[in-house]
Amino acid sequence: MPDFAADVRYPIGKFETLPYSEEIKKNWINDIRFLPNDIELAIQTFDEYQLDTPYREGGWTVKQLVHHIADSHMNAYIRFKLALTEDNPTIKPYEEAEWAKLPDTFNVPVNVSVTLLHALHRRWTVIIENISEEQFQNRTVFHPEHQKQMTLWHLLGMYAWHSRHHLAHIKNLITLKGW
User: Fold this and answer.
1) Of 57, 64, 80, 88, which has the fewest beta carbons less than 10 angstroms from its beta carbon?
2) Is residue 157 within 8 Å of 17, Cβ to Cβ?
3) Which residues face 90 on adjacent strands?
4) What GO molecular function terms would the record report (predicted)?
5) DSSP letters along 141-163, please?
6) Residues 155, 80 contacting (CB under 8 angstroms)
7) How confident is the model at residue 7 (pLDDT cuts 50, 70, 90)?
8) Which stretches of the chain are assigned E, i.e. beta strand?
9) Using CA atoms, how far apart are residues 32 and 124, in angstroms rounded to an integer?
């Protein structure tokens, strides 16, 4: 059995921005494009016990992860639209850990967030496929929590990483539990 315990919080490593390239762009867009299908396939046979299982001790449950991804990627979609239509807008941070404790996380079936991800990622993918290299490198948002400007290229990489990161949490749990 693989040893995921060594870095269970960051199974694919921490995010690092890479220099712009068409190949990387294509890969990152595909990470976002295929995430809803990948999540759906990974959890399609899960029962409530499995959905309520934390991916690590003290970590979020699979249900919380899926709802978190939907919450996070709704924010990402809005951030992209803001960056494309405003001059370096200040984005609104949110308390993701607190959002994960709200009633919808526990009372709404996980397939609702999977359905939301399918629709959201379809629209988001159309937008990012039509962003030029110049826009990726020059359109920005200001993140007040980090006190820094972030390019669309940085955001694309970060959310592609975020997609792979949480999918790896779920897949590693499946492997560790033998599901």
Assistant:
1) 57
2) yes
3) 142
4) hydrolase activity
5) EEETTTTEEEEHHHHHHHHHHHH
6) yes
7) confident
8) 140-143, 148-151
9) 8
Q: Residue 74 phi/psi, 5° resolution? A: -65, -45
DSSP 8-state symbol, 5: G
Angle (CA) 110-5-165 rounded to 5° is 45
Longest C-alpha distance within the chain, in Å? 50
Q: Which two tokens stand for residue 6?
A: 């060594």
- Give the pTM: 0.94
Compute the average pLDDT of residues 59-75: 98
What domains appear along the chain, each with residue ranges and CATH number?
A: 22-177 (1.20.120.450)
Q: One-letter amino acid identity for 115?
A: T
Q: Note the pLDDT of residue 36.
A: 99
The rounded percent of the chain whose pLDDT value lies above 90 is 96
Amino acid identity of residue 49, one-letter, is: Y
Q: Are 76 and 159 in contact (CB under 8 A)?
A: yes
In the block, tokens 């870095």 appear at: 7
Contact 93, 143 (CB under 8 A): yes
Residue 4 has pLDDT above 60, yes or no: no
In angstroms, the CA 120 to CA 75 distance is 11
pLDDT at 6: 62
**Contact predicate 64/105, CB 8 Å:** yes
